[in-house]
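hey so u asked for the seq, here:
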Amino acid sequence: MSASHCDVVVIGSGIGGLCCGALTARAGHEVLVLEAHQQPGGAAHGFRRGGYHFESGPSLWSGLGRWPTNNPLAQILRALDQPLDLISYRDWDVLFPEGDLRIGVGSTGFEAVVQQLRGDAVLLEWQRFCEVLKPVAAAADALPLLALPPGADAMGALLKRSGRLLPHLQALRHLGGAFGPLVDRHLRDPFLRHWVDLLSFLISGMPMGDTNAAAMATLFGQWFEPDACLDYPRGGSASVVAALVAGLQGHGGSLRCGARVHQLLLDGDRVCGVELDNGERITATHVVSNVDAWGLAQLLPEGAAQRWRRKLASTPTCGSFLHLHLGFDASGLDPLPLHQVWVGDWDRPIDAEQNTAVISIPSVLDPEMAPAGHHVLHAYTPASEPWQLWASLDQGSEDYARLKQDRCQIFWSLLEARIPDLRERCQVVMEGTPLTHRHFLNVHQGSYGPALSAAKGLFPGVTTPLKGLWCCGASTFPGIGIPPVAASGAMAAHGIAGPRAQQELLDTLGL
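ran it, structure tokens below
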């Protein structure tokens, strides 16, 4: 058993934890990020098999390739002087009950699809809806997430930025609520409502009635500008993680992988460090939890903050995932799309099991992700696979193997409709279940995150009832998704580094 000390210990190297660690190191603190697995990144990590570069998590990135931008991750990378090598593209494929469509990012691309499918009257309805969203998106831009304080003093942030916010006072009321009421007031056409519901679900893991209006207005502000595009980081998600790790280490911070935290150390009502599974103790002035709400509850010592612990443990969950990773021979195939999103039946809820799937083939844009003449593919069912189907199964059992084969058939049916001999082409096949998702991402029940409805309030903030303990990540305000978790990491860093360091960061970025 050994002991050591540093200013800040961050538990977990997801995007939120790395953003927090890198920004606190930039502010002059001694920072150690601890990661239970053998590589950093959490849901955004990449891995290699047989010459293929696979991705575990996000496949759609936007707002990284332009400046100024309202994307908190892009802002943080700029502050860390860690540019990304990006490949821009402008369309994606959707497989809907209405047919197989290619939809361009940007106002004209989607409007062309709406006009073709639904006619001029529905196109006008959509255009009016976008006009309604513009002031909401502008209000969100006027109050960047990185400018928000780490505690409850949101009014202080509003007063400091009152000059910028004055033109947006009427739209500000929408920023804290759900997106559903805005949609209900302005959209009647079924296709438009289904489309918005799908985008909300892909972003938050919940339908539009539970998704935050500010997050969706910001997305629309990015995606429906005339010159909008999507960004693919060359090298995939792993390159984003590598940039954040470089920013952390470049400012003197450290990362340790294979270091699983067993328990928080307490001195009265103050968290004073962590104990690892191997018995090692590391004391710290500040500890930041980048684990999920349920994992944090398990890290609390017996008897500590019992009411809060029960609240964490009872947090409702979004659904889990099925995954399919393939490395296959692409010789003789027609050009394939980078992204496809499939919806089976609009009459079922958008989050119903086996009703949505996302397919990503990043080697279409970045050939170095696969051996020459081959493609790498990641498909998943987003936040819709029931945990209950898997909870009692042993991963080595015949029942588990049968259920996995049955449930993952959803991917093969979609893919073989386009590539009938796909199975014969495959060199690498990996099928994943909620148990796989839980194991590799260290998340409760393989969940996407907390199912906390924006209609009922905001996600919990970065502060906690215990002194010296902060939170960031998908269980923390602003919530689920890459930009929100990056912002939560910044907010936790602001709490540690103080308002002067936060203002210096905003001044550097021109925010």
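The mean pLDDT is 92. The two ends are 46 Å apart (CA to CA).
lmk if thats what u needed
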